Amino acid sequence: MRSVMLGLVVCLCAVHGLTQGRRQANAAGPHVFGDLKVEQYAPSRSYHVENYKVTARIDMEKGEIFGDEVVTLRPLGAGLKSFYLDSSQLQIDHVTLKGAALPFHLDGDKLWVTLDRGYSPADALDVRIVYHGNPQGRPFPDAGLSFIRPDAVNPKRPLEVWSYGWPQNNHFWFPCWDYPNDKSTSEVILTVPEPLSVVSNGALVKETHANGLATYDWAEQVPHSVYLVSIAVGPWTKYSQRYGSKAVDYYVPPGVDEATALRSFGLTPEMMAFYSKIYGVDYPYEKYAQTADHAFGGGTENISATSLAETTLHDARAEQDFPSLDLVSHELAHQWFGDLITEWSWDDAWLSEGFATFSAALYRGHHEGYDAFRYQIYEDQQTAMREDIGRYRRPIVDRHYTKPWEILDRTTYQKGAAVLDMLRYVMNDGVEKTPTADEPYFRALQAYLTAYRAGNVDTQNLIDMIRKTTGLELSWFFDEWVFKGGYPEYEVSTAYDSARRDEAVTVRQTQTVDAVTPLFDMPVHLVFHGAHGERQDEMERVHQLAETFHVTVGWTPVWVEFDPNDHIYKTLKIAEPVEALVARGERGETMMSRLWAAEQLGLVKGEGGKAAEEALMRMLERDSYWGVRVASAKALGSMGGEPAKSALLLALKQPNSHVRTAAVQALGQFAKDAGVRAMLMEHMRDDDSYAVEAMCARTLGSSGGAEALTALEAEVAVKPSHYVMAGVLEGLSHYKDATAQAIVMEQTKTGSTDEVREMAAFALTKMKAAKD
Fold first, then answer.
1. What are phi and psi of 572, to 5 degrees?
2. Are both 504 and 531 inside the same structural domain?
3. 501 and 454, same structural domain?
4. Per the record, GO CC terms (predicted)?
5. How many domains does the chain have?
6. Do residues 747 and 712 make contact, with C-beta atoms less than 8 angstroms apart?
7. What CATH number is associated with residue 534?
8. pLDDT tens for residues 593-602?
């Protein structure tokens, strides 16, 4: 599941102030995740559900559901005389077993049922529950079902109903054991008014049409946790591909053509083949469907039937900046990690979300090359680190949450992905290679998926399977990276003794070691580079607060790379002269080494500043990978000065839109310059990238002034794409005057799309906070 709501709204969010995680305090007190007095564990069960059969009818006008459900359950012990199911906002009409009524009562969100006698594990009980209710009394995403209908404010809204089961929301539309630690098969038989259709889990058993109503019978035969049961009702247009013999279907709103649907979803069969091969387990379900739902947030990995935000559909111009690749590959990866195997309890959510995030990076590398994979992991590291510094520090596996939503953070997703990349690095002894199913890492994952197929797992199961499959004892790794928090903060210095041909590499770990943050023990790849292309590789185990390694090198190293592919989630300072950084930035063999050099060159002040600036200008112009050019643009923006400004303006001509976007952002340092402002206004009106236009609007707005306000007002008037409108509204949010507020207020009214209205409301909130 991607936990973002509307990505376009996220870009309006204010940046958090920085603290130092759990181990320091801000003015409001310690910045601690969750509630240390709370420890969440999975609830105990007295029975196992074998199957849910939910037969239901939906009243689209009233937002009601009328259900007739059969829960097939088997006691886990002798003498089961009563049990409960989770149920909220549902009227229970009656409960029966073999046609005989059973006493029942509601206690909060529990439906308690009293059986006619004691039952044992030999008994399979078909308990029938007839119910009705309006399950939409809570806001998304806690509603269980969301009814999407046109109204006076939103006259263009489609008619849709979709479920959102994660984490424990399906009991708002059918009684169930609503926790992931039980798995069952399921069948959903849903009747809706024509011309609406229903997408659900598994195979379509039957479809009937009569008297203006349509009934769809879907059945999933692979056991799954109940939160993965789903429905998506709408006037769908369906496009199809195939993965082998299995249907791969895309359900999109009316009017969306096949080219648009395939632009977002067309790589799905290739992704399915990639994951099936690399993880050694073929796609396990009857079919795979994806629906593009209105007003949906991000995506959720319902078993064999993923739901995605309608906003992931985009035109050809948006593909360069807002592709669906990461979202689609992330949700697909969940069909293995999260659906086929599922965590026992939410504290192990990283076993779903970390794996899906890492898998999306793996697929990006497969699709775009190794540098793209490494850059994705780098971005995951940076995202996780911002949370660690700015919000809190916690272990990946942490029981101190109040609600499961709290655990869906950057530590679970992005740090989880970074840790899985490090795990592969450790298991491969630091050897760089294209992912193959026969390497130790993927052999262990194949065994893990196979052993726990259609079952539940915790982190210890993964540790045990690695040990069993490869013989590697990696409990120490998981203790550091999963059961504790933080990361190593390395400071490195080097000295070469030419007489002894000895390079001394001193490494210090400067993080504060405490109950949350350990002293890290990691193998580190060191690479020594000479003036004439010489190279020497070494592996060292870094595990002390301070230690010095002596390496025999037959020539004078110009620079030393410490973890050149950036596998280790860390901060790094290396005491080396500007000349070494310049050499690394222009001659470094790995993309990540050059990117790190660009970041460090941007910090150079005083003596050496000119050489650093000139090197960054060359890197911005020439580096082979756009991510390094982006880092160079950011570094030049932080340095300021006329040469940097000229280089950034020149970068606006580069074909890569990511580089142009970074150049625009960096030019914010010069936005009061008339020439720069003119260029920003030109690109806001006429760049082939929505992202560049949006960044121009943000940059102009943050610079202030009447001229920029006039330009932003003119941009609103032409009703740009919602991608660009996001930037325009953020730009306007920097103004406190009534004119800007009135412009933004207008976008909250009838005629604007749901996305634009939500962004405008957020901008108004930000403007009000600034005035207060």
1. -145, 130
2. yes
3. no
4. cytoplasm; extracellular space; membrane
5. 3
6. no
7. 2.60.40.1840
8. 999 999 999 9
